[in-house]
Amino acid sequence: MCTLNNAMQNTAAWQASKFITSTRQQGRWIPNQQHVYPGSWFIISVYIDLYVATIQQYARGKLLDLGAGMVPFYGMYKDKISENVCIDWANSLHANPHLDVVADLNQPFPLPDDTFDSILCSDVLEHIADPFAFMRETARVLKPGGDLMLMVPFFYWLHETPHDYYRYTEFALRKMCADNQLEVLELKAYGGYPDVLLDLMSKGLGRNKRLAGPFFRLAKALASTRVYQKLRAKTADRFPLGYCLVARKGEVIGQG
Q1: Does residue 16 lie within any of the structural domains?
Q2: Is 35 contained in some domain?
Q3: Is 39 domain-assigned?
Q4: How far apart are CA 57 and CA 27, in angstroms?
Q5: Which sequence ranges are marked TM in the entry (predicted)?
Q6: How confident is the model at residue 200 (pLDDT cuts 50, 70, 90)?
Q7: Quick check: 105 and 128 in contact, CB under 8 A?
Q8: Alpha-carbon span 150 to 51, nearest angstrom
Q9: Is the pLDDT of residue 256 over 50?
Q10: How confident is the model at residue 119 (pLDDT cuts 50, 70, 90)?
Q11: What is the CATH number of the domain that holds 94?
Q12: Count of beta carbons in the 10 Å neighbourhood of residue 114
């Protein structure tokens, strides 16, 4: 087992990467266009408000950032927690100096049982070769009464290949939680049919920044219309871009 520090490594050196706060809309998080692949600007604009709301409601106490990468969510949760622990692969595409624990996430975590008040696992599960073992490990290190915040894509292109293994329906997520005594508190789809179409087009144009910028502005304008939002709401259950889940580990009942 690893000896855990009380704070993320090199906290003072942390800088926003994937997400930044808007200069026009104070306090609102937006994709960092200097850091993010242009083809992903649109999908981030679709899910970011849901992610922020979820993290700021459920992040608390000692938090495990599971598959942390460059710790892009730190700015969203740092004021909600007492300490955080960051874990990821040594060969992650998002290597950084902030990792507290370097480990193969396809193996048992080198972490003690019942350690964390909250766990954040964003867009990681699709890269896990054995997701069932991963969920057992996640539940194991979560304290009774602790909350798991899990985000996964569904209609999404192949990325970080060859380590891109699965896509999950809401039914798979519910079963994986039930199998590990995790009670689903929230399970929300983000995006819908029109978002899937625009995200596909965005990915196709993403390597050309001269086209990506104007297309992103057009897509944002379309997505703000009432007709578009109605179509999104009507089709989110069948054509989700992804899901945001919160599940709580059951309290241990004392033995008489």
Answers
A1: no
A2: yes
A3: yes
A4: 16
A5: none
A6: very high
A7: yes
A8: 10
A9: no
A10: very high
A11: 3.40.50.150
A12: 13
Residue 95 clears pLDDT 60, i.e. is over it:
no
Rounded Cα distance between 103 and 23, Å, is 37
Q: What is the mean pLDDT of residues 160-177?
A: 96
* Number of domains the chain is built from: 1
Q: How far apart are the first and last CA of the chain?
A: 31
> 119 phi and psi, to 5 degrees?
-130, 130
**Does residue 255 have a pLDDT over 70?**
no
CA distance linking residue 97 with residue 110, whole number of Å? 19
User: For residue 149, what are the β-bridge partners?
Assistant: 120, 246
Which domain does 195 fall in, by range? 24-249
Q: How long, in residues, is the chain?
A: 256
**Which H helix or E strand runs over 151?**
strand 142-153
What is the C-alpha separation between 104 and 101, in angstroms, rounded?
A: 10
Whole-model pTM?
0.93
Buried b vs exposed e over 63-97: b needs ≥16 C-beta within 10 Å?
bbbbbbbbbbbbbbbeebbeebbbbbbeebeeebe
- Give the model's pLDDT for residue 235: 98
Q: Tell me the three state secondary structure of residue 212.
A: helix
How far apart CA 94 and CA 28 sit, in angstroms, is 24
Of 8-12, 108-112, 229-233, least confident by mean pLDDT is 8-12
Q: Cα(193)–Cα(239) distance, rounded to whole angstroms?
A: 5
Whether residue 13 has pLDDT greater than 90: no
| Location of structure tokens 């060969």 | 91
Q: In this structure, is residue 185 part of a structural domain?
A: yes
